[in-house]
Design brief:
By secondary structure, the protein is mostly beta strands. It is built from no helices and 13 strands. The N and C termini lie far apart (about 40 Å).
């Protein structure tokens, strides 16, 4: 069974940092495209970062480029999102996702395009940035 479990969210002051983790079970992250998305209240989920299957260079939305970094720990089968210089407008629920079906079709998500059709999602984790 595919499972994604996010952790590391919470409350931080503007300018601070958080690192989100996404632990996987039931599959190996290295074999699939992976992404991070976020959702603001009352709005659709938007892309934050993604990396294609077989690629080690993530893409980022313009709103987080230069502040957020996605990485993988192969030994722990975990993906991270390091978030620096956080702003109040980064306050959202953050989701980890994976393209388990392996569909590498280019997909235009809100804010980000990825060679993936993400089909499995974590439960989401709240990040709140105070001003």
């Amino acid at each position: 069974e595919v499972q994604l479990v996010e952790s590391g969210g919470g409350l931080v002051q503007a300018g601070g940092s958080l690192r989100l983790s996404c632990a996987a079970s039931g599959f190996i992250f290295d074999d699939y495209a992976v992404g991070w998305f976020r959702q603001f209240p009352g709005r659709e989920r938007e892309g934050v970062s993604c990396v294609s299957r077989g690629d080690d260079t993530p893409s980022y939305s313009d709103s987080v480029k230069g502040r957020f970094t996605m990485s993988r720990d192969h030994a722990k089968n975990t993906v991270y999102l390091q978030m620096n210089n956080l702003k109040p407008e980064d306050t959202a629920v953050y989701y980890c996702t994976v393209d388990i079906a392996g569909d590498t079709t280019w997909t235009a998500y809100i804010g980000l395009g990825c060679h993936a059709d993400f089909d499995s999602w974590g439960q989401g984790i709240q990040v709140t940035v105070s001003s």
